[in-house]
Amino acid sequence: MIDAHGQDVLNEVINIGFGEAADALSELIDSKVLLSVPELAILDLKELSAFVQRQISEWGVYIAQDFDGQINGRTLLVYSEEGSLDLVTALLGEELRTVRLTEVAKATLQELGNIILGSCMSVFGDLLDARLRYTIPQVSVECSTDYFTHLIAESAELGRVIAVKSTLEVSDRQIEGLVVVVLSFTDFETIVKRAKEQWTP
Amino acid sequence: MTNGWKSNPLMPVIEGLGVGLILVDADLKIRAWSQWFVRHSDLKNEDVVGADLLNRFPTLRKPAIRRSLETCRTKGRPAILSPLLHPNLFPLQVDRGRDSIPMVQRVRILPLEQDPGTTPGIALIVEDMTDSVLLSKELARISALLQGLRKVGRHFLSASDMQGLADLVCGVLVEEVGYAGARLRLSANDVQWRAQAGCLPLLNDDELPPAEPMEPAATRFPILLDDQETGLLEVQTATRALGQEERDLLAAMASDVGLALRTFRERALRREAEAALAQESKRLATMLQSIGDGVIATNAHGDVTLMNNIAEQLTGWSLDEAMGRPLTDVFVIRNEDTGEPVENPVTKVIREGRIVGLANHTELVKRDGSAVSIADSGAPIINEVGEIEGAILVFQNATERNLMQEQLLQSQKIESVGKLAGGVAHDFNNLLTVILASCSFVTAALRDGDPVLDDVLQIEAAGKRAVGLTRQLLAFSRRQTMRPVELNLSELLKNLDRMLGRLIGEDIELTTLHDRRVAPIMADPGLIEQAVMNLVVNARDAMPDGGKLTIEIANVELDREYARSHVDVESGPYVMLAVSDSGVGMDAETRARAFEPFFSTKPKDKGTGLGLSTVHGIVKQSHGSVWIYSEVGKGTTIKMYLPRSVAASRPTTAAHPKPGATTQGTENVLVVEDEAAVRHLTQRMLKKLGYNVLLARDGVDAQSIANEHDETIHLLLTDVVMPGPSGRITADKLLEHRPEMKVLFMSGYTDNAIVHHGVLDPGTHFLEKPFTINSLSHAVRAALNDPESNGAPIPDPPKLSDPTGG
């Protein structure tokens, strides 16, 4: 599947993407945003639902963005409901806090998701020296076991999952989130191979 | 779409989407824009199309946006600019009602690709999110308000006071919900009111009413307490009006405040009531402990719930031990005479629901088996719905009370017998005066050897015995004339010692316990001697086979408690004189009657029945008290308590007949006496002594005789107790015109007219009836010869009755 070295370099690659994302977010809200060093897990797509369930206490919200070009796949940013509300409050302030996500909150999450997911994929693109196409991220609160069932069905040709756990820290709040990259075995192998080549002295 | 894009077949679709579209080329020159913008701004096509994007819309120059544009152009990465993080990127307006307000926008930046790998341009899609944002904000406010309401609801009952409540409510509204200001105004009964708000000064009480209006204008919500408006919740918003939903929620909060107020009030009332109850309980507990009676409370089952210390003492149970036990275990009662159990009053109280008194002659059997005579009563404890919740039993030791009652009865009996005896003695003295004087006249007239002489002497002897008895009766009835002096009992006993020794005989061992420190008393030494002798004689007679006789004197202090429990005793310093014997003793019945005159256990010829009565009279007249302690077979102790002297004795001019020759005279004597026999006898005696005698039968008569008599009246000899003016008044009247006249009173017993508490007034001459020619002659001579006294200088002449009523 992947050796320790492969996992290390992959981790490093994603960390660079997170670093860019954190900088972009900090600039955006004019306040320090940190994304913790990612914890990486490589999974089969069919394991994803159970994995997410373990990591995110309560199904909440996901932001999905598809990409294609030299590699194809889908990225997801998953937060618990509480986490997503905390995140929006951290970005927009206490007075806009609601008990459910509003359209405005979703728009904010959309921008945030776009930055985090785009930064990650952008690093992959740079790795492959390829230009990828991205869809506008979709924010959905319909995050459930059903969603992952459908995702598996839709993405039958894909099979590999890079799941990255990271904590976003902003305005004294810490919100745990999960970045999921779903792609084919081949594309995965390509990325790992390229990463090893570039990062191995 | 304009300018070069008009021909695009998708144009109607794009315009129909309701979003704005701007197309820029790789150099960020605006190539085209949709008509949507024109509808929301005053921008004109020619101002926009062909212009540089960042020049035309400088708000897009922010680094984050510039980078997004750049990334999109170079890497084909889309970007999203969310409305709240990037407000008003484009100068667009939307109409809301009559107002035109800035449009809140979401901008999406998308790459335009003709061939993969190249980006000839960028599309900016602008979406109106004004409604969403306004809605979100309202939703957020309502959400915060709901949470605030919940918080206030959760905490308002724990707020300690109005200030705490105001802090909570206003704090939530300003800090958590985000209102510009909030104020809580309270009036009506709770004149205290407080204001608190993030941006408002805290107002003082004296600013009410009217309160300063809030600026900007506040919306007010009435606070109701018992359907009365008692205050206002004022909420201030910076710019906008409150929505209906918000108003409803704020009204609900005001209503919560009203509820909190009621709770505060109830809590305060309850605290007050609890404090009052605690106070009352404390007061009751103190009362319960300080009350002189035993008190036991029970529940409705008759189990003990409370008892005070007196109850503990009387029953022998402690409260801890008795608590929860049936009262019948703790309070065991029976008939004093029969020993039969008596129904417990509490049982009856609980059964009948009314106050129950205890039957007479009940005794309480203490825990150790000893019994004490008690009096008690029980009362039900009835709750507010009329149910019996228990009973209260109140009881006291009746031994003392019973004893006091007996003492009182005894003392009343003796008092009435004393009055009777005194009255009889008075008449007897007049009769005896006549009898004895007549005897002396007859004796004088008879020749020696006359056979009648013996009979006359017999009459005289019997008369003298009668005089002795009458004296004792007078002593008992406390009408004996007293001449009290300051007297040391120790001295008195020493002087009596030898005589007492002769009196008791050799079989009896006499011990006299002197106490040199014994305080002086105020008493007539002759009478006290008589009392001691009477007691010693009684003691002797109680020990026919010999025994021990002890006389003891000591200083004692009779306290209030003793005085309270003994009839006719005042507390204070006394000297006790106790005479104890080891003789046969007395049973209860004898003890009870011992002071009665003519009551005697001795054979008829041996006792007069006046010994102890005399002692009683003497002690009482000396303001003391006398008590018997005696048990059959164990001997008797009689204790006299005589008050200690507080002042030196006042000398009185004694008229004791002195032994010696008849003293004669030739002065004029006015005799006033209502008893004809005594009057004539006195006249006969005085004439025999050489005096000139004027006779009057009463005070009025004396006055007229004196008026008609021009010569000097040297002496007035007057009875004290007479119909009409008393001897005292008669003397005073005569002295007004004859101040040089001497006065000699005569009487069978003393009277308030010339004595106080049986003590002769200073300077008064007095002759006791019955008198003989000898005692008369001395008394008359002494009065005539007294240079100082004529009876006139009496301290308060008109009324000499005892001011204390005694």
Based on secondary structure, the structural category of chain A is alpha+beta
Major beta-sheet overview of chain B: 7 strands, antiparallel
Tell me the total number of β-strands of chain A: 8
Largest interface: A-B, 32 and 35 residues
Query: What fraction of residues of chain A sit in β-strands?
Result: 25-35%
Features:
heterodimer; A: 201 residues; alpha+beta; eight-stranded antiparallel β-sheet; 8 strands; 48% helix; B: 806 residues; seven-stranded antiparallel β-sheet; five-stranded antiparallel β-sheet
Describe this protein's structure.
The complex is a heterodimer of chains A (201) and B (806). Chain A is of the alpha+beta class and 201 residues long. In chain A, 48% of the residues lie in helices and 25% in strands. Chain A has six helices and eight strands. Chain A has helices spanning 4-29, 48-55, 81-92, 103-128, 145-154, 185-199; strands at 33-35, 39-44, 61-68, 73-79, 133-134, 138-140, 160-170, 173-183. In chain A, strands 1, 2, 3, 4, 5, 6, 7 and 8 form an eight-stranded antiparallel beta sheet that branches. In chain A, a hairpin with a 4-residue loop joins β3 (61-68) and β4. In chain A, α1 (4-29) crosses α4 and α1 (4-29) packs across α6. The longest helix of chain A has 26 residues, at 4-29. Chain A is globular, with a radius of gyration of 16 Å. In chain B, strands 11, 12, 13, 14, 15, 16 and 17 form a seven-stranded antiparallel beta sheet that branches. A five-stranded antiparallel beta sheet of chain B has the order 2-1-7-6-3. In chain B, strands 19-21-22-24-23 form a five-stranded mixed beta sheet. Mean pLDDT of chain B is 80; it is low at 188-211, 648-661 and 791-806. Chain B is rod-shaped, with a radius of gyration of 59 Å. In chain B, β16 (371-382) and β17 (388-397) form a beta hairpin. Chain B starts with 10 loop residues before the first helix and ends in a 21-residue tail after the last helix. Chain B has 806 residues and is an alpha+beta fold. Chain B contains 23 helices and 31 strands. In chain B, 40% of the residues lie in helices and 22% in strands. In chain B, α13 (399-445) packs across α20, α14 packs across α19 (611-621) and α21 packs parallel to α22. Chain A binds chain B through residues 24, 27-29, 69, 91-92, 94-99, 102-105, 107-108, 110-111, 114, 118, 122, 125, 131-137, and chain B through 63-64, 67, 71, 75-85, 106, 108, 110-111, 113, 116-117, 129, 132-133, 135-137, 139-141, 143-144, 176, 178.
